[in-house]
Amino acid sequence: MWEWYNSDSEQMALILELFCKLNPNDQMIDKLIYTLMQNQSHGYWQNTATTSRVLEAIYAYIKGRKLDDTNYKGTVTLNGTELLGEEFKGVNAKPKKLELAFEDKEISSLTPDTPVDVTFKRDGTGNMYYTMQMRYAMPDEYLTSRDEGIKVIYTIIDPETDEIVNKSDSADCLLKLKSGKIYKASITLETHKKREYLALRAPIPSGAEILDSSLVTTGSVDEKNDLSWGHWLSNKTIRDNEVQFFWDSFGSGTASVNFTFRAARRGIYPLPPVQAECMYEAETFGRGDGYLCIIE
Asked: Are 75 and 84 in contact (CB under 8 A)?
């Protein structure tokens, strides 16, 4: 007897169910569950049949991993001091979240430039999953390019001479532009694997203005994007001080987007780096260099 499955999610659910029956502790199961959850929208997959198949696979996952038997206390300690302690019981256990500001006693009392011990501990039955993030502010011009799964290459070009104004390999954080001139911003993204829900933010100096390429006055500048198969742009939004690009799905490989802006008002303006990130995977991101922009 042959059965035909009409979606990737339906086929993946069948594979998940098979893995759960053969070896419930296989690490591939976690990856399949994660991908299936990425494919859903508001708890619903492509159609009723697919949703039903996925829910059956998730039920097999719950039984195979014995999630109904989950019963443990999870604790987080910083240098031996408990920051968070919560109990998790059954499959309906909800995640717990703790946010600490730098001015909070637990953080402000730490000695600068000294390593600290952060410990996650589980007492009881079940698997404990956790994520830890640290966010802090730095002057824009001190930020350098970084590749955490997504490489960002940002160039600013003078369309009249095709000269690259900013040097990505230079230690000089100063970016000099001329008031009244039009510049082309080109951003190339590279990734070695498929990414879901990828967002790209491309700021401009506060003393500049983004141009609408559909107008006759700016249409002479080539803004053609290099978007191959698997990199079709889902949305583009022009704000006062940045252009935002978004992909529901961004395939492995390289893609480029472009826009133009005019350096309008003379002055000195901090310029944050261009940054790309997976909206639901904060650990997967990339950024370019930050600059101190001088419009002369």
From this structure: yes
Any residues with CB less than 8 A from the CB of 291 and at least 6 apart, and which?
140, 141, 166, 173, 174, 175, 270, 271
Mean pLDDT in the chain?
Answer: 87
Nearest CA to 198 out of 279, 253, 282 is that of 279
Residue 263 tokens read as 């350096």
Q: Where are the domains of the chain?
A: 8-65, 69-125, 140-295
Nearest Cα to 171, choosing from 144, 189, 152? 144
Q: Which CATH class is domain 140-295?
A: mainly beta
When mean pLDDT is compared across 44-48, 118-122, 239-243, 291-295, the lowest value belongs to 44-48
Length of the chain equals: 296
Helices (H), the chain: 8-22, 27-39, 48-65, 105-108
What token pair was written down for 127? 């698997």
DSSP string, 113-167: T----EEEEEEEES-------------GGG---EEEB-EEEEEEEETTTTEE-S-
Both tokens assigned to 294: 């001088």
Q: Which residues is 201 bridged to in the sheet? A: 244, 275
CB 219 within 8 A of CB 259: no
Predicted pLDDT of residue 232 = 87
What are the tens digits of pLDDT across the range 104-132? Answer: 888 888 888 888 899 999 999 988 888 88
> pLDDT tens digits for 123-170?
999 888 888 888 877 888 888 899 999 999 999 999 989 899 886 555
Assign residue 149 a region: left if phi > 0, alpha if psi is -120 to 50, beta otherwise?
Answer: left
